[in-house]
Amino acid sequence: MILLIFGLVLFLGIHSVRIVADGRRSRFIAARGLNAWKGVYSLISIAGFVLICIGFGQARQQAVLLWSPPRWTHDVAALLTLLAFVLVTAAYVPGNGIKARVKDPMILGVKCWAAGHLLANGTLADVVLFGSFLAWVVLDFRAARQRRRAGAEPEVGSVKRGRSLMAVVVGVLVWMLFAFHLHQWLIGVAPFPGFHGIGH
């Protein structure tokens, strides 16, 4: 659990700089350049992510069960995760209407992912991991909205025809690949036990 918590501190900490220390981030970039900031940001993010994966895996081996979620919560989690993949994809597809409408599809996507997994899992490690992401994303959304009101966030460009459909199709396909194959292979848990994917 210690590794999991330390990884969350690193990963969410570096992703919270714009929430709690946006001025320091700006001064760092002004003094050392954007590439230097991206380098530091990437190194800390990767280190935190690796520690989260290792720590979560260790915590699951000695799971502390807080409650037993009913079966229907897994169906809700699957739908929320599907929505999350579409939203995160929309964050990277330029000129799509989804991004123009919700403004922060990445943040909303992470919120759906965290909420779905928190609902469908009842161990202490799950609460620590997904609860931390859910709390962070609420704060990040608030900070992004404040920056937008202050004019510090760039406006979304014009919507181009077919880009929204592209985001939905790609998001659904990536979700299917991850849910039916990669999730069990990488995480060790099959979201759909009846499906025989990688690792069977």
UniProtKB/TrEMBL annotation:
Residues 3-191 form the NnrU domain. Its main location: membrane. The chain crosses the membrane at residues 40-60, 72-93, 113-139, 165-187. The keyword Magnesium does not apply. It comes from the Bacteria. It is found in: Membrane. InterPro entries: NnrU_dom. Keywords: Membrane, Transmembrane, Transmembrane helix. This is NnrU family protein. It comes from Scleromatobacter humisilvae.
